[in-house]
Amino acid sequence: MNTIFPKVKKNALPSTESSLKVKNLIDKLYDNEVLDNDEYLFILNNITNKDTDYLFKKGNEKKQVYYGNKVYLRGLIEISNYCKMGCKYCGINYKVDTVERYRLTVDKILKCCEEGYKLGYRTFVIQAGEDSYYTDERLKGMLDQIKAKYPDTRITLSLGERSKESFKALYEAGADRYLLRHETASRRLYEHIHPSFMSFDNRRLCLDNLKEIGYQVGGGFMVGSPTQTNEDLVMDLEYLKELDPHMVGIGPYLCHSDTELAGNMSGTLTETLIMVALVRMILPKSLLPATTALGSLHAIGREKALKVGANVMMPNISPTENRDKYEIYQNKICTTDTSDQCRNCIEARIVGVGHEIDLGVGDYIDFERKEK
Ligand code: 5AD
Ligand code: FES
Fold first, then answer.
1. Interval 34-86: pLDDT, tens
2. Is position 363 within any domain?
3. Which of 95, 104, 141, 265 is least enclosed by beta carbons within 10 angstroms?
């Protein structure tokens, strides 16, 4: 019997029996929205291609409960690829000297917002490496200008780890959401794919602080990181249930040849889709992007993610001339496209798989912003 996750142990049960158990566990997860760790592990260790059809169907069904076939769009602006961090998988970490560094001025960022707004986007995702240039003062200036011009939008920041005071100041200046993937909930794996100056505990502390301040918070992890086991992935599921984030970014690890992890295998499409479908059932109200990494791994990876539980897409609205420099992994899609090309492309892809675009701000269901 061919199980999907390559690191699985040989299965003790005959295949029909184990398939039945996998199916029963999927049903139990659908109903209860949580499983025990050994139950998650059983699924990961035993799921076959045939069983994924059922899992994917249930993931999609769970999404329908709250979101129907709606897909929310976020305009993504990659404002700087300077980074002081050393994530060993990432092609823009501070050690990589083959990438040309850039930083957008506030005027350029506002231009991107203008274009994004015209294309119908009502959320701007401001993303960068961990760039010390972006002090609270500078970011507050940027937030003020975006919010003044586009009061009917949401601003999502994705700028890495910062102090609680900084997160608070940016929230008060108008930021609504913050994306900070936990990357892996396994301390062992975290320490394997990050340098020793980066802290597993601090990353979690940041996520706790963001939630406490009142942001809509996004966690997330990579699938197929070097040495990742199914037990590690179970920790991601357990941690996400506990953190209860509003958004979860799940993408395959994609090997970059100029990083310390060069030469490793990348994650696979099916493994990633399995994790998207499971997270949809564990956090039914969450906003789950069909990630650019999935689209880069497979021509219709993002469409497949929509069909198993994802409900967000993040078209790029960065200036085209900078896009190839934000090379966190190689062969990234959309690097030669303009913002309106991405807009058309995304729409065709969404409609092509029977989904519909929602151009609202796309807040988490029932979310109310804490005011001062
Ligand atoms: N492959 C896949 N995902 C990556 N990220 C960074 N580098 C890679 C890579 N090589 C992801 C991380 C990070 C997000 C912005 O991109 O999860 O949080
Ligand atoms: Fe950018 Fe398809 S989304 S070209």
1. 999 999 999 999 999 999 999 999 999 999 999 999 999 999 999 999 999 99
2. no
3. 265
